[in-house]
Amino acid sequence: MSGVPRAASAPPAMKTEHTASNAYTFVREFRAARTAPAEMRACSVLRLTGWGLHEDDELVGDVQLVVTELVTNAVVHGGEWVRVELKLQDHRHAPGRRLVVGVWDSSTTMPSKPVYQPIADAQRVDLDDETLAALALGGRGLLTVEQLAREWGVDATTERATLQPTGKWVWAIFDWPQAPSP
């Protein structure tokens, strides 16, 4: 992306299973900022509608929410740079297409698999009001991703192992309902 200086900590490209002939790709790199989740949510709608979906399709809403959650996590927990990639590609081992949403940040802290714990259960174990407030405000983003995406995961990037800046990709995969229009 023009205007983004390429430093040692600039975001790497996401590794995916596709060839250039069968993929549509959207990439955006930016400095982490509070406005980034809303901006990327809007960009994802524009890209998905450009690839043939209607704004009111369920997949558009699901992807918007997942992009928002992953970018929010990258801004809150990651470093100075964030990279978002949307890739529409043919399934490697199945018919049809899939959408891969990837968000990179320079943090080496890996998110753990989310565990659902209702606030009512937390109250029974006598957590203080401050902890309960924190639970109510956050900590459910990856649960949302897990519910909406077909699968999700995390891949570490290290300069020595991947020839990419140190950090991680958090990604989610969605089944694509139709072939995109050109």
How do the strands and helices of this protein lay out in sequence?
Layout: E1 23-31, H1 36-50, H2 58-77, E2 81-90, E3 97-105, H3 119-124, H4 129-137, H5 141-148, E4 151-157, H6 159-162, E5 167-176
Antiparallel strand pairs: 1-2, 2-3, 3-5, 4-5
Helix pairs in contact: 1-2, 2-5
Description:
This protein is an alpha+beta fold. The chain contains six helices and five strands. The chain has one domain: Heat Shock Protein 90 (2-Layer Sandwich), CATH 3.30.565. The protein has helices at 36-50, 58-77, 119-124, 129-137, 141-148, 159-162, and strands spanning 23-31, 81-90, 97-105, 151-157, 167-176. A five-stranded antiparallel sheet has the order 1-2-3-5-4. Strand 2 and strand 3 (97-105) form a beta hairpin.
Assigned CATH class: Alpha Beta
Helix content: 25-40%
Task: Supply the number of helical segments.
Answer: 6
- The unreliable regions are 1-10, 15-22
Which terms summarize this structure?
alpha+beta, single chain, globular, ATP-binding protein, five-stranded antiparallel beta sheet, Heat Shock Protein 90, transferase, HATPase_C_sf, 182 residues, ATP-binding, disordered N terminus, 6 helices, serine/threonine-protein kinase
